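Morning run. Coffee first, then this:
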Amino acid sequence: MDYNTLAYTYQTPLYVYDLDKISTQFESIKEAFKARKSLICYAIKANSNLSVIHHLALLGSGADCVSIGEVKRALMAGIPKYKVIFSGVGKSDDAIREALKEDILFLNIESEAELSRVECIAKEMSKVARISIRVNPNIDAKTHPYISTGLHENKFGVDIDQAKAMYIFAKNSPFIEPIGIHFHIGSQITELEPIKQAAQKIAQLAHSLLALKIDLKFFDVGGGVGIRYTDEQTITPYDYAQAVLESLRGLDLTIICEPGRFLVGESGVLLTKVLYEKYNGQKRFVIIDAAMNDLMRPTLYHATHQVRHYKSEQNTSLCDVVGPICESSDFLAKQVALPPMESGDLLVFENAGAYGYSMSSQYNTRPRAAEVAIHNGEVRLIKHRETFEDMVQDEKTLLQTFIDSDKSNETNNG
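And here it is:
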């Protein structure tokens, strides 16, 4: 793909996604679980562009959603309601009502208090709420602490004893139908053993619940399989599936898997142009038109995205690649070797398809980037670049109301 042409046509910063790569990733994990009844639910938080979700819907994907907004995106993009899951620790009453109204597959419950609210709302609506409970297995995923979710020190899920009590409560409620059990121990996992341990632990719980006549239908193993950003040794879909399947011997449950980064991470790049170079003493900086508001992961997690350029490999020297935002934490790469750069040179940040645009912001009143997708060699614009007018339109309308009110007060007081 000629990134220079894309950068010229759509300007930079620019996100570019390879939909054919997403298809390959989806089919690989679907194939890995083909021996059992399974449902692959794309974790929309990784990349929530409607065209990306629609592409996965056409492949047969479901959706793992962590807000009612993501539920709406999934349905709008064509994912059937019976393949949509609503997770997350902080569901509001309005979000719960809307999810029950949409009649999605189930809600993942994260606390006793949430279960109580779901029951109350379902009763008010004269509905039966299908639920799963997220169980925290207290397993260390061996990943970055900010994206570890399976330890008791994390905010997610409930412990096994709490889960048992909640399932019994749900079974006895006329307004709750417990149909699934769920765990998710973290993101960007590159070791198989924590997944295997967690699956075994939750499978044991599932056996005990079935013995209590709790009619589970789904075993949701979450997501979290990592990708290669630098030199990580990643888990193959086959090995991942075998670790889960081995734990489920004797359990006739449909497996739900919730990949996000695995499906879209390696499909995307961020294109950015060099503005200037500068030196502070012996320190070299390459200043680009992308910033931490466009790609937050390096600042937030000290994550590494490989950076490519189209200049000679000769005369390289170490530099920090930084953006225009007024923060010292505004960097996209540190201590990388690049040749001398000139204004307008193009840089490509690899593996930016997950948690790139979806975590972007308008900090420093910077418009969010455009997004394009490539499918069967065809380039499609799937998100316009924001303009200043886009950012301030609502505020401008309200500001005029504010100004009119002040003028009215001045007249009355005069």
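The two ends are 67 Å apart (CA to CA). Good start to the day.
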